[in-house]
Amino acid sequence: MSRLTRPSRFWETLAVVIVKPLSWLLIKRDWRRGDRIPRTGGVILVANHLSWADPVLLAHYLYDHGRWPIVLAKSSLFKVPLLGHAVRSLRAIPVYRGSSDAARSLHESAERLKEGGAILFYPEGTCTRDPRLWPMTGKTGAARLALETGVKVIPLAHWGAQELLPYGEKRPRLFPRKTFRVSAGEPVDLSKYAGLPPHAPVLRDATADIMAAITEQLAALRGEKAPETPYDPDGR
């Protein structure tokens, strides 16, 4: 077991003992296509973001399908007493936004991938602001990392976490018991970008392909047609 890709036995056991029973208590599960998640080797897992609850619920899904998810978390969380120590001990990677340290999270992610880790990315960077909760346009970090390392990118879509804990609310809505739906897709085909310099247009196009793959999975989960154009929070 690599020190970079999994926590110590104590921290892993503690997280599992807390998260799994809590998840079972709060939600019903509709988990699909976990067979598409590689059990070994470096892999980038990209997901839509609906609620502050979905990282924990997705972690349960991934753990039960053989992977310890390495989550990218805001650097400010690492400064909170006790919580910061726990987040770091669970092998999360700090994200330094809007600073000279912003590239450090991608460099550390690349190192974890080389060690065989599974990196969980939210390419939107925050919970969606789309009025109908479809994925927004994405940031280019996951695409850059994928093109740099050549590892597989597996799209994950989920639905239901927003009913348990709507974005912006602090108290969960426990009743009636919610259903958390998750589906993993086939690896995103980024082969047409292989060997191209990581210039902005290349990264934007690769990111659009990644977001389209997530949206396709989500449309199947919701049984609805996705919008033709993703919501752009910057109004572009």
From TrEMBL:
Organism: Nonomuraea corallina
Alphabetized UniProt keyword annotations: Acyltransferase, Transferase
UniProt protein name: Lysophospholipid acyltransferase family protein
InterPro entries in alphabetical order: Plipid/glycerol_acylTrfase (IPR002123)
GO molecular function, one term: acyltransferase activity
One Pfam family named in its UniProt record: Acyltransferase
Domain Phospholipid/glycerol acyltransferase per the UniProt entry, residue ranges: 43-161
Top-level taxon in the UniProt lineage: Bacteria
